[in-house]
Amino acid sequence: MTTEKENSSLASSVIWTPTTIQEALAKKKEFGADACFISGGTLLQLQWENGNKVPKHLISLQLIQKMQGIEVERDHDCKVLSIGALSTLATCQNHSLVTMERKLLSEAVKHIAAPAVRNQATIGGNIAGRSGDVIPALLVMDAEVSLCNKVSSLKKSVWSWLKDKEDQQDDLLTQVHLPINEQERNMHYFYKKIGRREAFTAAIVTVAGSMSLNELGELDHVRLAVGGGDNLPHRLEATERLFKGEKLSTVTWKEVYSSILKEFLPTTDAFLSADYRKKVAAHIIISELQELVFPSLK
What we know:
12 helices; five-stranded antiparallel beta sheet; Uridine Diphospho-n-acetylenolpyruvylglucosamine Reductase, domain 3; four-stranded mixed beta sheet; Enolase-like, domain 1; 3 domains; flavoprotein; Uridine Diphospho-n-acetylenolpyruvylglucosamine Reductase, domain 2; FAD
């Protein structure tokens, strides 16, 4: 049952606490642009403190059971690690299924914010804001999200969702799905977040990558993703194509470096230039890929 109460800290807002996805969507339909979904609330709180308008209605998702929990499911012939959008970042970092089946997610999450924030912030909130530091890791794992709105429910890749320019403010992100590759032993991953201070500030740049080799020793699956701070996360698809069919020993690293500089279009702010961010991202990606090729370099 949906209840209503005044928010003591945000006196002008009303908090609604639906217990089902359908109730949450009904409230969003009722109040439209005057309402927003909220779970952990850490990102929204920061935005409000920076002067963004506080909605008249806050639709809390914390009581919706179908948006909680982590489990391995089967999707046709594939295993999938499904994570409820309300799972906290701390849960994603420490849950046994995540550390066993999708360790890169655990590695990425431990570099996001401070422990107290990870105990409250949710993976759904980190993704829904479209700039979360977990997104590059999800992109290189070919993650999908389940979305519900007043018209339909659907599942789509995180990359497709990010590229979709249509208004999605009424969509409710309910689950995250990570395919479990049966050939995982042949996959290699990396994730790096560079900030002005350890984990307690916005990232200068966040990068992630994955790669695998076929039986001929050729690269047949490469994913590279960048993001961090105000830079919208995205895949470096043109750079990825440079690796297709190449053997590790024949990769032209100068060409890869130049492609990253061309494809990554970060922002400039009061602290750092876009050019600096480009070079940081390119150096990290090259270094991590070469470590996979030549482990003795480190």
